[in-house]
Amino acid sequence: MKKSKSMLCLLLSLLMIFSLCSVVSAEEVEANQWEATQKVVVRGKLSANNAGEEVTLVLFKNGEDSVSQSSIGYIGQQTIAEDGSYAFSFKFQGDASQYTARLNMNGKNVDKSITSASVESEIISATVSAKYNFSTVDIAVEMENYFGLADKPYVIIAAAYSEAGALISTESVQSGMIANGVSSEDAQISIPENAAKVKIFVWSDYARALPYGDLATVSVAGNEPAAVHFIGDSRGMTHAEEDSFPVQGWSYFLDEIFNSNITVYDHSAEGATAASFISSEKWDAVKAELAEGDYVVAALGYEDAMSNTPVIEMETALETLQSDAETKGAEVIFTTPVPTAGTADENSNLTVYSEAIQSVAEKTHAVCVDVNGLVKKQFSNPELGYQPYDLYYISPAAKTHYTQFKGLSAKVEALLSAGDTAILNERGAKLVADKFAQGLASCTTSLTGYLVDFTDAKAKPVRYREIPQLSYTDSKGSEIKAVLFYGMPYHGSESEVFAYVGVPAGASETNPVPSMVLVHGAAGHAYKDWVELWCSKGYAAISFYWREPSSDYDHKLADGVTPVDYYAGPRRSDISTSVLTGDKADHFMVHATSDISLAYNLINSLPEVKKGETGITGISWGGIISSRGIGEDTRFKFAMPVYGCGNLTLSTGSIHPDSIYDGKYTFANTVKAGMPVFWINGSNDTFFSLHATSQCSYETLSQLCIKNNNGSHSQQHGSGSTGDIPELFAYADYMLKDGTALPTVSKLTMNGRAASFSYESPISITSVKLWYNTTGIVYGNGIGKPGTTAWTSVNITQTADGNITYTVPDDAVGIYFEVKDANGLCRTTDYIELKK
């Protein structure tokens, strides 16, 4: 992470030098002209007195003095040969005649020294495609390495532009090495606010910007500001929370289904029929506000059905509404009325009026979303688990759920006394808004371009409620809140997730702090002491609960006693394909990894938190979940899976399922993410073998720390404490607080019995050790039993250059090396097993 920042700074510094320095003379001058756009070789010659000096080459679009959104600059550096010559070789696609090459040496331009430019055969090409998908752009890149050259780097860059063509942002989407032959890479980016176009580049790396492939440009729908005017009765009307909690109308949640370019205006009127609204001053006021390109969402018809208004009267009023809006250049979206939890006769009558509304839409060539049908289908879902009345309406059964947040309003108490079966609670209102979005997505209307991807947790707005009686201030002054945040739909209904959220003492909007997302292990829960621990280190933190297979913690906190009432998501059962049935949106791993993204959204919504300065750590099963989650959500600055990992099929520990969820959630996603990861495991861990953890470290090009211990699942992570592993906090400080870096250790290589690796450290190294066993890893005789592997350590003499080669003992089978610095912090090589 820090390395990429430094490369960008170097680029900017070099460009500043080029724009300010003067041109010096050269011995030999030739026109800078290229005949083709394949592989380009730029050669030149300076005085032999310059031998050994570094020269840098930059390409500028003709008439420009710096790299901008309309030009790509290639930066390369070469050492001048003994005779004063130099040569640059690089791939270039585009019209080369539109670019000028400039050379820099010692802060001065020497571009006139360029003596020749020739073109050679193409080495690498890339075909880039991009597709707009709600709030994201999906990117596919096919790369061909014609000569089978190994170790060729690439980086996919996404640049977002406004409607006027101004550059809004650039993002390094994905990077890696091009394998021999054909390589297919998939990536995704979130679309910045106000972006009209996104352009995709494939470069050699971020600093040099050497283009490998054709440019892809995708237009972003829904980028122009527009208004949605909502017209409905009391069931669609937005209610003031202080007067009505938990009553809510579904127009309240339209802000969540549309992007920020849509402004929603609620014009609902309690008790309104179609005819009474169209003949009212309210409709006159709406017509006066309507502008070309606006939308009218008409959610009328319920009161018509309840009062048995003649159908023809309703149809006539709706046709007038459509005509009036069309005259103003606005588009009408009709909706059918929401069913009630009342009698079958009531809902049968609503069906009659729903069909009439659909007929009006067909007659006037307008769009109609059948909300009535979509909500009724949800009510009939056999997996729902709750009666629709109890779940979505103001019912006595839901009273306990809402009173844990705050007292009920007088209006709600009256509705409860009256046994009302038509007024929605906020959960029901959100369901209706979601079903409206679902139906709208399949309609032919430009309004769909403003929808956010309601299946993507990263795009889901933050909504949570504090549970006051479970919140507190700890002994160090950190504020710890118990909350329920709204999760992804489970069997079609929005789930809730319990969490503790902590903000350290002294943090404020003017003094924000970085943050951590904490993912518990098996037999675990959301741990307030874990949150307290990170708060004591100066971090805001959130620890949420993913559901275990056992019901022990259902509606209870970690103590197994304190009650909490919520609508939970799926339980963890297994991640093998044998149990993955039904709708994928209901699978445990989808919810668990989505909860990671939602926790990120929540913690970053707090004013005391530095936006985007967030890491994640997971323990045991939380290590499995977080190691997959970072492949789905790359917004985290880093990850620290502890005693849990990917590559579980390689594990010889107790946890080694036959398959790793499905194609989307395999560990390959994490490898592609390119995120800094710090893997930690115990030498005798019962559940996760060192083989799997070492492979994770190798595949992600990340660092590893094996903690030598005699326990089975050390540091008591499964019981709620992270243990005070100093490397965890030191690495977080390095990534988020500019703390001191830990030692870095290379991959271990073998030549016979000679083991080699290298290490670096910003502070002195106090010890280098070989740890070895003579048996390979030996696990306990059952799940959770301590491992019995016996380990021997050997002190290794340090070297000045940090390069170590050591012949391991003849009886050594399993080995790794540990490097410890003056702060007592260690990193290790990977673990490997040898043949005797």
From TrEMBL:
Q: Where do the Dienelactone hydrolase domain residues begin and end? A: 499-695
Q: Which domain of life is it from?
A: Bacteria
Q: Which residues form the signal peptide?
A: 1-26
Q: Which UniProt keywords apply?
A: Hydrolase, Signal
The protein in question is named Dienelactone hydrolase family protein
| The keyword Metal-binding belongs to this UniProt entry's keyword annotation | no
The residues forming a coiled coil are none
Q: Which family does it belong to?
A: Belongs to the 'GDSL' lipolytic enzyme family.
What Gene3D superfamilies does this protein's entry cite? alpha/beta hydrolase (3.40.50.1820), SGNH hydrolase (3.40.50.1110)
GO terms of molecular function: hydrolase activity
Which organism was this protein described from?
Congzhengia minquanensis
Q: Which residues are in the SGNH hydrolase-type esterase domain? A: 230-390
